[in-house]
Design goal:
There is one protein chain. This protein has 2 domains: 2-201, no CATH class; 229-526, Alkaline Phosphatase, subunit A (3-Layer(aba) Sandwich). Helices cover 49% and strands 10% of the residues. The protein has helices at residues 2-26, 29-32, 35-61, 66-91, 97-105, 108-118, 121-138, 149-169, 179-182, 185-209, 274-281, 292-295, 299-305, 325-330, 342-345, 357-364, 406-434, 469-472, 482-487, 489-494, 507-514; strands at 219-220, 226-233, 261-264, 267-268, 309-314, 335-338, 370-376, 439-446, 451-452, 461-462, 476-480, 502-503, 517-518. β5, α14 (325-330) and β6 form a beta-alpha-beta unit. α3 (35-61) packs across α8, α4 runs antiparallel to α7 and α5 crosses α10 (185-209).
């Protein structure tokens, strides 16, 4: 039975190591004095036992398949173990549902860019050795045999008995997962994929079918020609904007007209991932009423019903026209164009945000009297250095207030360059709007922020379930045309509380407000101008 001991120990290693790591990383004397913490910690370990027992069941029943089975376990679940430990190491928290959603809808290009930015090349050697060594050892393990039928039956019976709590609670506990299961590589993939299939894909299908009833009567309060540009940034942390006090001049282009731009400084996204953030930002859904994302139409549907021609231009990655809830929503627009379909351009460098400017100009010139153009930027999505042309490489110094390695200084410089480049793109859009008569505006915000060495330890880069201040601090900037100021002087007058704390999920009400629309779904108290 020695070889069975090896198999059991190997499965236990994969099952328990992430839990042991997070325990060692977060444990303290104060926490050990907390009975609730100790009780939850014990439950986490206890819950992992039946999961490992269930995974062990196949080679207990079919010992001749043990080697092949362990190699499958190695190929599938060892990477998940690395992923969980790496997430805890980078962000200090366990992987959550929104992070897994991101994994399920990502593509090879995004994955490659994430790895290139977050995993130093030296770690590749360690990962290859740690990942490859078990494969090598497994080839030398003799096929296990049982010493007798009684041992065989007893082993299977014990495994099934231990697995009963896991099986019994399988339908009950989703989508509210227990921490012990979520952190276990053997169970978290199944649990999260079930939630993805039953929640996310069903939601996407409902939105794609466009079965939401029409909004109540929408009143348009302006008769003038109206052109609105709603620019959605990516991973833009407002703490890196000079207009909010950042030491580097990352807003030098819009600074040319800073007296014409209203910048709100205390806007926070409640999520640090694109999908959960935008699902609520461009719909009437919020944390208390998440179902409104499909029982009511989106902001695109709202503008269409109000008589606007709607356009959606996106430089975000996409696998197909309906690969996420957001892309399903955007298909409702009268005109939709994605500049970065991953399935077609997977191995090419992502296009730049300026590539969308000619299309914006064509839309501005098409003669439609009332239109809204949504522009979804790639912004400051990692890898930052890929988000701007070489001529926009600007920051080369080292920020003395942050003790960073040479490599991390380069990452920081690239991130700030991407913020500065986005500022130039926004200025180009404003210039185009300035040349057009009518009641026009440009509104810019970001889906979420990014922690680029902004925390006290200066070690963190990226965004995750942690959702700390840098990951949720987002810009909100508004430019009004002279024509709109003339017919809506109240907007400028009401925009006096620039540091008003504001949730990004309420932004739809601000957009309806400045667009001079209203109906029963609009809540003026949720406008940032209130």
């Amino acid at each position: 039975m020695n070889n069975f001991r090896f198999a059991f120990l190997y499965i236990a290693l994969i099952g328990f190591l992430p839990l042991i790591y997070v325990t060692v990383k977060t444990i303290s004397i104060e926490k050990l004095k907390n009975r609730t913490f100790v009780k939850l910690l014990a439950k986490d370990f206890i819950r992992t036992v039946p999961v490992c027992a269930l995974v062990s069941l196949p080679f207990l029943i079919m010992p001749s398949m043990t080697k092949a089975y362990l190699m499958v376990i190695q190929a599938i679940f060892m990477p998940l173990m690395f992923l969980e430990i790496g997430h805890i190491y980078l962000f200090g928290v366990r992987i959550g549902l929104n992070t897994f959603y991101s994994f399920f809808v990502t593509n090879m290009r995004e994955t490659r860019e994430f790895i290139s930015q977050n995993i130093p090349p030296i770690l590749y050697v360690g990962i290859i050795l740690f990942y490859g060594l078990p494969f090598y050892l497994l080839t030398f393990i003799p096929t296990p045999t049982y010493s007798g039928t009684i041992t065989h039956v007893l082993a299977v019976w014990v495994a099934v008995l231990l697995a009963i709590p896991f099986i019994r609670n399988l339908p009950k506990r989703w989508p509210k997962f227990k921490d012990g299961y979520v952190l276990n590589p053997f169970s978290n993939l199944a649990y999260h994929y079930m939630a993805y299939r039953r929640n996310y894909l069903a939601l996407r299908q409902k939105i794609a079918e466009n079965t939401a009833p029409a909004f109540g009567k929408i009143t348009a309060h302006l008769s003038e020609n109206q052109t609105y540009i709603i620019a959605i940034g990516e991973s833009a942390n407002s703490m890196h904007f000079s207009c909010y006090g950042y030491s580097r001049n990352t807003n030098e282009f819009t600074d040319q007209i800073k007296d014409e731009i209203i910048s709100f400084s205390k806007v926070r996204s409640q999520f640090a991932q694109t999908m959960p953030s935008l699902e609520k930002t461009i719909s009437f859904a919020d944390n208390e009423h998440p179902d409104l994302v499909y029982t009511k139409g989106s902001l695109i549907d709202y503008f269409k019903q109000a008589g606007f021609k709607t356009y959606w231009l996106s430089n975000q990655y996409a696998l197909d026209e309906r690969d996420t809830v957001i892309t399903a929503m955007t298909m409702h627009a009268d005109y939709n164009k994605c500049f970065n379909y991953g399935g077609l351009k997977r191995f090419e460098k992502a296009g730049l945000d300026e590539d969308m400017l000619p299309d914006i100009q064509k839309i501005l010139d098409n003669g439609e009297p009332k239109k809204v153009i949504f522009v979804h930027l790639i912004g400051s999505h990692a890898a930052y250095v890929n988000r701007y042309p070489s001529k926009f490489k600007h920051f080369n110094d080292k920020m003395t207030d942050k003790k960073l390695s040479e490599t991390n200084h380069q990452f920081l410089n690239a991130y700030d360059d991407s913020i500065r480049y986005t500022d130039w793109v926004l200025m180009e859009m404003i210039k185009k709007l300035k040349a057009k008569d009518g009641a026009n505006y440009l509104l810019y915000f970001s889906d979420h922020g990014e922690d680029v060495f902004d925390t006290d330890t200066h070690k963190l880069m990226g965004h995750s379930e942690l959702a700390n201040e840098p990951m949720t601090a987002v810009p909100l900037r508004l430019w009004l045309s002279p024509g709109l100021k003339k017919v809506r002087p109240d907007i400028q007058k009401r925009a006096t509380w620039l540091d008003k704390p504001y949730k990004l999920e309420d932004l739809i009400h601000t957009i309806i407000d400045i667009s001079s629309l209203s109906n029963e779904d609009y809540n003026p108290k949720k406008s940032i101008l209130d």
